[in-house]
Amino acid sequence: MAAMQVAESLPGGQARDVPREPPPEQGSGFRCLSARLCALRPDDSSSARTEIHLLFDQLISENYGEVAPDVSALLVQACRLVPLNQNHLVSKVSQLIHHLLNRLQVIVDEQNLDFLLAYTISAIQQCSSWTHMEILQALAALVYCNGSKCQKYLPDLLGKNGILMKLSDSAQPDPEARRAAVHCMANLCLSVPGQPYLEEPYPNICFQAFLTTLQSPKSSDMDDITFCMLLQNALKGIQSLLNGGKMKLTQTEELGALLAVLKKSMFHGLPGLNIELPTVLYPTPLPQYDGRPPVKPQQSESNTSRPTKKSKVKSRKIHQEEEEEESSGEREAVPITGSGKENLCEGSTPCSSSLGVRSLPVEGSSMAGRDRVSTPFRSASWKKVSSSESDYSDAEGGMQSKMRSYQAKVRQGALACFLSTIKSIEKKVLYGYWSAFVPDTPELGSPQSVSLMTLTLKDPSPKTRACALQVLSAILEGSKQFLSVAEDTSDHRRAFTPFSVMIASSIRELHRCLLLALVAESSSQTLTQIIKCLANLVSNSPYNRLKLSLLTKVWNQIKPYIRHKDVNVRVSSLTLLGAIVSTHAPLPEVQLLLQQPCSSGLSNSNSATPHLSAPDWWKKAPSGPFLEEASVSSPKGSSEPCWLIRLCISTVVLPKEESCSSSDAGCATGSIYEPSPMRLEALQSDRQILCITMLLGLNDSKNRLVKAATSRALGVYVLFPCLRQDVIFVADTANAILMSLQDKSLNVRAKAAWSLGNLTDTLIVNMETPDPSFQEEFSGLLLLKMLRSAIEASRDKDKVKSNAVRALGNLLHFLQPSHIEKPRFAEIIEESIQALISTVLNEAAMKVRWNACYAVGNVFKNPALPLGTAPWTSQAYNALTSVVTSCKNFKVRIRSATALSIPSKREQYGSAEQYVQIWNALVTALQKSEDTTDFLEFKYCASLRTQICQALIHLLSLASASDLPCIRETLESNGDMVQSFILQFLKSGAEGDDTGAPHSLHERDQMVRTALEHISSIQALAGDSAKRAIMDFLEDTLTIYFDSSGSQVALLGLTDR
């Protein structure tokens, strides 16, 4: 009956009145089988059921070599033939749905999907429990990437008494059905770009179900592999929710609970490790972000602020042979438990005695645990262990290998989910959990807590190690502000450890562990991730505040890898070297490293020596005059140029060998051209010309990595004092950048836009020099091209747009009267300003809007532009006042208030109506300066009020007689509020954000005095009392301020006036 109801829901659902005999064309092909199935009609006879059974079996076993017909219509017909009271047939048709959809990867149209969903849901509700597993598999295949099309069925699936909620509950007696139900939920949450997302509250319902699943222990009736698959499905579900962008982890408890289960799952099944964690991890307060002094360790390590971490080794009740195999997969040679002392020698070659990896006996060596391909240390016992599920020596060994494979997939799923979590929360929030995932140097005699480095050093799966390194890289990326407090330059012998020393200790331990992983790794893919992770660490660490030798160790360890056989390893090695030479210049340690001869650190011959590529072509200087002399960084009296410069130049200019690639050239470009002005100026003029010529030539490269690196390097060079006033170089660079802005690659365009922003910054710097020759010689035609390209780029993706609008603002600021007078500039100026206005108003990324407001402020700085009289004046002011009163991001509000205070003449503010509109908007913005639901914005409240007060005082200092009545009216209604904030401004000034507001007390009160003097000098209209009211307001404000500050002299001066 239920089956017939479902069938009736489909148009044309009446049974076809056709004979049941097979068509004349017999065959085993999929098309023939489909035709036979479609020719059948519902029949409850035994022979009909047998025929349907056989057809389903044949369809499932078919190899699908032919082009498939309409699969979704075929599945609908199959369901119409199977009433819900036939459990075996329902099970079989569910297998068919699951098999065909997974095998053929077809998209089911909405009409047929609606029918099939109704059928499977009814089947679960009415059929015996033993069929639920197959039906849920069919349902999972149907809802895969179709969550937005299943909205009307969500109450039946995910409601309070929904099918999936019941079957996924930990009390569910059938473990396989429970796993399949969680799998269905995960597929429902998988979003497709461009399609609607699950409606609230279902994303949160699914999240809580996944979280509960991950928190629940394995039940006694569930086997280990099913449990692993259950965990994998729950992790995939959370990852899909996070990747969809609709899941906001704003609650500390919610985020802490997720991080706790992710950390637990990261180590699931790791040999020799069994950790116990609290259900919630709590963050540590961070002085870098909340403005408070560093906390003492007694506070940061308390139960409420720092996660509890325990590591307990627990022996497994398995055969002795398996125990030996597992121990060989662990990194026992890598001392993750110990005193935390440095394990690397000071020289370029690591000590074999300190690195236990190299001094262990062959049998049971940890080096063997990494499945080395060509190492002599491959352990005989480890040969029995394989991560492949198809390589089983016997039944027992096969199950153990299969188990290890599934456990590794859980760890990989947890790391992938953690990576999505990192991308969905703010870095300042993430770093509160730093100590839970990043290692710290353990105290003497105490074991080291488990962290991401535990996986990097001990996990037997290369893929898992690479995943852990990707997560660590994501944590380190953008961590410069967090790590900036680290300090380790002096010995701290106190009763407590300062927060700065704790962070320094963590940085030091990261260096130690990553270098250990570097020398022990055999997988090229994982090796690349280690080096990328080191590059991120080097780029963000404050080495000027740390003890020497950290960079030296990294430098000496990485040098052999620039000759590695794998191109990705070579590329990442060059990236790391580029990061080292770019650290906080000038760093004496780096200067000494650059003076080392090219052979230093390249003679390692122990087991950790990487596979080297053929000829050392870069060791010998290529022919040509440009390398015949000593270059910068060479030791005094030596004729050997800096080996790194020679390496990079050779990589770029020599004919490409089999072992080299375009990626090498791109990275070499990024390394050698990650320069500092001092290094470039120290080069002789012919070498400067060589570097510049090579860069401009490489900008035409067909390889996008090379082109992106070249665009960025040009953007760095154009800022150098020795080059920025060279009109020809700036013009050549501009043309090269404009060409890259047209590239198909978003990465190239983003780098080019950043460089265009830098180049236009250079134009502004050159305006401020006494010599006007640069402005006179710079081509007006090139300016037009730059404006057109910047307008076009302002319509691109946010990565390009943010710098494009910055460039537009600079270009409009740079325009000279001679340009503006020309008719061909009039249209492009109007179009440029309209592009900026639309960007200010659009709901783009906040960085883009901030840059747009900054750019509009730059436009206001050009006295040659007709600000105040041009038609676009009111549009620009309206856009800024809209942002300053309503934008949810306070930094954008601050920047718009700054722009509103830039015009230096009253006529630039336009009519009296326009002036009053700006004044009233600023007063409204001052009233709403604390109205935010985002607690992260509260820290900018004071800065916003400071900038608004400065803008209001600035407007008063320019007011005309016609403006005074409206100002008085505002002060009558909001005078107390405005006065209280101006008094705060006078007493404290700017806090937190660099808004350009004056910081000295004298400058601040002088602004109010200037405004008062200006108002008093206005010739008011007869009978107008507004002037007196405004003067009283300002005098009263100054009197209160001077009285509270005890400045009697100033108070007397004010009274006398």
From TrEMBL:
It comes from Panthera tigris altaica. Residues 307-317 have a biased composition (Basic residues). InterPro entries: ARM-like (IPR011989), ARM-type_fold (IPR016024), DUF4042 (IPR025283), HEAT6 (IPR052107). Keywords: Phosphoprotein, Repeat. Residues 409-590 form the DUF4042 domain. This is HEAT repeat-containing protein 6. Residues 1-28, 288-374 are annotated as: Disordered. It holds the Pfam family DUF4042. Residues 297-306 have a biased composition (Polar residues). PANTHER family: HEAT REPEAT-CONTAINING PROTEIN 6 (PTHR13366:SF0), MALARIA ANTIGEN-RELATED (PTHR13366). It comes from the Eukaryota.
